[in-house]
Amino acid sequence: MSIATLAEAAATSFGDSTALVTATKRYSFRELWNTAESLAAGLYLHVLGRQPRMIVVSSEGEDMILPLLAAHRLGLDVMPINAATHAEVVPHVVPRDALLIHDGEKPDWHTGPAISASRVSELAQSSGTSLGRTRRRSRIILLSSGRTGSPRAHVTRPVGYGGVRQLASLHRRIGIERGDSVLACSPLHHGHGLQLLASCLFTGAQLVYAPHATAPERLDLMRNEGVTLASGIPSHFSDMADILESSGAEPPSLRRVVCSAEPLTEALVSRLTDIWGPVVLNAYAMTETGTVTVASPEQVAANPGTVGFPLSGVEIGIVGEPIHADAEGQIWVRGGNRTVITNDYGRVIDRQLYVDSPAVNRELT
């Protein structure tokens, strides 16, 4: 199952309900799929010359989401990147013959074919109705964060039974439902951002995609789009809490606040609870596996530092220790159809994971 399969099914199931809100546009589920399919036809006929090649997307908003869906519709590998963050690595991991979709001027580091993000809208006017089915199975290639070492390219694998279980467990644990409006502060070149997109397509929830918005802009989006669930790193929510506390303004109503990717301190949990109530979840995720554990608000309150229990289809443990044993040391994770030994150290207590420090991960399989 691919992200395009989810988008196509969502177009049939959820039709004219709002699927995606960005800084400049909004799409229903039907419009999102039809636009992605039209873009796929435009790329195939007018840019790729009917020749398969990887598509690399270095853009923002719908200009990253639509090419991602279009590439999957064509069965092509796709790599969403942040070229600024990975400036030293990108020239070495992007194939020379890949098609680069970029903002602004074409970057000097890519000598292969490229189009500007402004052409995406033009190409999306193509007719996708006659586009044939492909037998190729596309993959998403993500760059690891490289917090303590050089980022590396990681190929996601097709979402089999284990991946579907993990995704379904994530949206149950977080509580994403049809009718929700989900603010995503994580970009698509992060595994958690991709999982949020997939969860919204899976459930019919609205995705408000705002990875580059400021704290005031995110608060405005929460109010204007009726956001019920917000997901981001703790510093995002700390910035928003600063504004609300200093202004004394009424906070927008949220029923879930999902933190990940940074340590969540007991002090910040207390501040967010004062603002929104006991709604704070803490997740553990990595590029290679996506989100693998989620701590409920009750677990966050009772066990400071916990990132919760594994999702369905996920196993966690300490290197050199029996699976499910209480232990302390280097963490390993099996999820997202792969196994990694992380450079994170922490503890497993009663199958609940506590992470002491984030680091970069080493792939095993």
TrEMBL record:
Residues 8-336 form the AMP-dependent synthetase/ligase domain. Signal peptide: none annotated. It is an enzyme of class 6 (ligase). This is Long-chain-fatty-acid--CoA ligase. Belongs to the ATP-dependent AMP-binding enzyme family. It comes from Agrococcus casei LMG 22410. The keyword Ligase applies. Its EC number is 6.2.1.3. It comes from the Bacteria. The keyword Membrane does not apply. InterPro entries: AMP-dep_synth/lig_dom, ANL_N_sf. GO terms for molecular function: long-chain fatty acid-CoA ligase activity; medium-chain fatty acid-CoA ligase activity. Keywords: Ligase.
